[in-house]
Amino acid sequence: MQNDTPADAAVIEMSKVSTRFGDHVVHTDVDLEVRRAEIFALIGGSGSGKSTLLREMILLHRPNSGSIRVLGVDLQKLGDDEADDESLALRQRWGVMFQHGGLFGSLTVKENVGLPLREHTALDDVLIDEIAAWKLSMTGLKPEVGAQYPSELSGGMMKRASLARAMALDPELLFLDEPTAGLDPESAGEVDQLVLKLRDLFGLTIVMITHDLDLLWQVADRVAVLADGRMQATGTMSELSKMDNPAIRKFFDGPRGRAAQEQEQEQEQKQEKPQGKVQTSNEFGRPSSKPK
Amino acid sequence: MEAACLPEVMRKGRTLTVKEFCALAYILDERIHLVSSSSMNTIALIPAAINQPTPEELALSGSWTARGIGTIGARLDAVSASASLIVDGARIESLDTAGAWVLQKLLRRLRGEGSHVEMRDLPPEFSKLLDVVEQQAADQTDTPPLASAAPSKLESLGRNAVAAYEQAMALLSFVGECALAFAGCIAHPARFRWRPILFNIRSAGWDALPIVGLLSFLLGIVVAYQGADQLRQYGANIFVADLVGLSMLREFAPLITAIIIAGRSGSAYAAQIGTMSVTEEIDAMRTLGIAPLDMLVLPKIIALLIALPLLTVFADVLGVLGGMIMARAQLAVSFGEFLDRFVKAVSITAYLIGICKAPVFAVIIAVIGCFQGFRTKGGADSVGRQTTRSVVQATFLVIVADALFSVAFSALDL
């Protein structure tokens, strides 16, 4: 739609990124590439630096060395000023859903969703309210939720509202930090579907941090494994599941890992017949939602 | 490209009306701004435009995006319906959800007014998006928007009254709970938690010495300075000791100390307990079998009960010292003369009256701070609100209590 870079260009490129906090080395020489319109997942144990890597992609933290390009912009070249034109323009091209929502407690849910539109566009208030209500319903929230304050919402509703706000300016790139953590299985399943729907409908590139094995198997196109301060491997889940690297095996050999893998295999068999759960229609001729 | 997207009026080459001129200036300015801000995009954003060359035809062009449609609302309202309309979407450069929403609204209105609307030459991905919006709009009209009429004056008065009543009752019951917990601790002295009490004495008492001392010293100076002029006129210089001694010891020292502590420690209590209840620490404490009142509230009350009278004595000393210095500088009353007169003028009763107010103020400050902390509901916003409330209410109640003391003491002829 508003993509001005070639369709197969990398949306995010990181090369040789290293980060230290004082003497503590978070990660060294991380290389990573996220392609357009793909769902990219970042996994790794607690403290492996996933969140730091995500924060570096969205200009909240600067790495000690290495280069990061997001949407064709070299982040190292941007000034430190939060509001300079270039980083402001870049920030409007992505949306971020934080792990705990990051919704503003003093605004209602609808005002939260409308805030980016109010700040960055000249639309009138009535229209902004309508669009905000629509975005909320797109993420599966009822219209009456819009009038509530974030403190009155359950965890799942908070995540949906946060996703609606991240989508407010129709970003090209969406970052999701633990989109299904703390959700019941039904809500988590709906988030799976929502992520796929957004990608297929708007051609979004989605980068997410997750521990949710179902989400990884059902939704992610490619997965990067971060462990011991290094990028261990990148590939589809089925490629990763065949690797011998002990840091990767941890994800597959636990009882949960096996269950999710079996479920995926069952589903693949079902998909031999027309239309499985995962396979949503691909209107724009994009690569199918899961590479086989 | 620039020329092509200049508004119709410019190409026709006629004189512009004032309204058109303003609109044009705005559009151009907007475009210049957008070009400069999206320099890295290299593609300038062309505002969305709509033209109705003939009554049966609508031509759309430009960027129908959140940033592009900006001011198009009024021009959409001007589009008139006719029996059959052909909408040409070939020149739409980009369409996002906001643009699709606006476009969909227009189509819906035209259809509602009886037009037969046909979209032509719309790129397939745009029409897909438009379909999604249409589906959504149909769903959304099924559920009428929530009627949220602003409450009438009478209604909000009533609601405020109920809220105030409810808060007063909650405060009373909190005071009762504290009293019960205190009685329980007296009955079982092992329940007293000495470590937090000592910690609170240090943080609310010892650490407050510099600010309390400085402010009461300045207050002493001010009182002596204001009185000096009047006293000099009557040659009653020595009575500055009466003035400073009585006013500082009876009124100013206890009051200024209490107000400083309400701002300094009362707010800290409210913020601490409020944050703890937002992050579920209070609930965790309950599930671990620790009574939050014993752990958080009683130590604070007891600590302030000890610290505030001591701080008041300190404020007395420094306030009088300030008065003494001012008396010597302005009225030539030496320290010796001042203290001579001071002992005669200020009775021990005046001193004790000042000190005995301090524990009452201490209880007010600690109870209000903790009470407002426990009433925190929701998020960070609420913590700030309750903290403000605790300071305002504590200061208010301290001054009210001081006024009641004055009435009581004058009734008792003290």
From TrEMBL, chain A:
Statement: the UniProt record of this protein carries the keyword DNA damage: no
Gene3D superfamilies assigned: P-loop containing nucleotide triphosphate hydrolases (3.40.50.300)
Keyword Ribosomal protein carried by entry: no
Comp. bias (Basic and acidic residues): 250-275
Matching Pfam families: ABC_tran (PF00005)
Organism annotation: Candidatus Propionivibrio dominans
ABC transporter domain span: 12-253
Region (Disordered): 248-292
Name recorded for this polypeptide: ATP-binding cassette domain-containing protein
Taxonomic superkingdom: Bacteria
GO MF terms, alphabetically ordered: ATP binding; ATP hydrolysis activity
UniProt entry keywords in alphabetical sequence: ATP-binding, Cell membrane, Membrane, Nucleotide-binding, Transport
